[in-house]
Amino acid sequence: MPTSPARISPSSAITVESPARLHLGFIDPNGSLGRVFGSVGLAIDAHGTRITARQAPASRRKAIVEGATTDTQRERIERHIEQLEAALGKGPAIDIEIHETPRAHTGLGSGTQLALALGTAFARVRGHEATTADIAKILTRGARSGIGIHGFDHGGLIVDGGRDARNPSITTLPPLIARQPFPEAWRVLLIDDTSREGLHGDEEKRGLASLAPFPAALAAHLSHLVLMRVLPAVAENDFDTYAEAICDLQQTIGEYFAPVQGGVFASPAVARALEAVAAEQKAGIGQTSWGPVGFAFVASALDAERALAAAQRVSPGAPLTFTVAAGRNRGATWRAAGLRHPDANAA
Question: What residue stretches are annotated with the GHMP kinase N-terminal domain (predicted)?
Answer without folding.
Answer: 78-145
